[in-house]
UniProtKB/TrEMBL annotation:
This is Uncharacterized protein. Residues 1-45 are annotated as: Disordered. It comes from the Bacteria. Residues 1-20 have a biased composition (Polar residues).
C-alpha cells in the first residue's frame, strides 16, 4: 500500500487519485468494481450549479402539474383545428407552436413555463411534458401551480368541454334531419 491508502493494481496504477472518488455500484445485489465508476471531483457540481439543478427540478415538478391542465385549457379556448393554438388573457398568454406549450406573463413578457410534450404515461394515462424553461426566466411560482390545479380551473375546463360536446351533438343532429 502507498500513502494514498490504495494498493496498486496489476499494471502498477493506483485505484484512487487525489481528485477522484470510487463509486461501487450495486446492481442486482452484486457489487461490481470498475475503473469507469470513478467520478472526478472536478465533475461534482459547485453550490451555484446545485442550486440551479434544484430550481430546474422544482420547475419540472411544477410543469408536470400545470402543463396538462394548461393544454386542456388552451384546447377549450382555441377550438381551431390548427396544430398551433393561442390564448391571450388579462394576465397570461398561452401558446402552442406545434412543439412547445408556453405560458407568458403579460405584464413583463417573462416566460412562466415552456414545456415540450413527450408522450403519454402508459401506467397513469396522463400526458407527460418536459420543462424547457429558458435561462433567466422566473418559472412557475407556487401560486401559479395552486391556481392551475384549483377545482375552479378544472371545473371551468369540464364545463367548456361539455358545452362544446353539446354544440357538436346538436350540429350532428341538425345535419341528419
Amino acid at each position: 500500500m502507498d500513502q494514498r491508502g490504495s494498493p496498486p493494481s496489476d499494471n502498477g496504477d493506483y485505484n484512487q487519485t487525489e481528485n477522484s472518488v470510487k463509486i461501487i455500484a450495486n446492481s442486482d445485489n452484486k457489487q461490481r468494481d470498475k475503473t469507469s465508476d470513478y467520478i472526478s471531483f472536478n465533475d461534482i457540481p459547485s453550490e451555484p450549479e446545485i442550486d440551479e439543478i434544484d430550481r430546474l427540478m422544482e420547475q419540472q415538478v411544477k410543469t408536470d402539474l400545470v402543463a396538462p391542465i394548461a393544454a386542456q385549457f388552451l384546447k377549450v379556448q382555441d377550438q381551431s383545428n390548427s396544430p398551433t393554438r393561442h390564448y391571450q388573457g388579462k394576465e397570461i398568454t398561452i401558446d402552442y407552436d406545434g412543439h412547445h406549450l408556453t405560458i407568458k406573463n403579460n405584464q413583463d413578457n417573462s416566460i412562466k413555463m415552456k414545456a415540450r410534450f413527450v408522450g403519454v404515461n402508459p401506467a397513469s394515462k396522463k400526458s407527460q411534458w418536459l420543462s424547457e424553461l429558458p435561462e433567466n426566466s422566473p418559472g412557475l411560482r407556487d401560486a401559479d401551480v395552486q391556481k392551475w390545479t384549483s377545482e375552479a380551473v378544472k371545473n371551468y375546463i369540464k364545463q367548456k368541454q361539455f358545452e362544446q360536446e353539446t354544440k357538436q351533438k346538436s350540429r350532428i343532429a341538425k345535419s341528419i334531419t
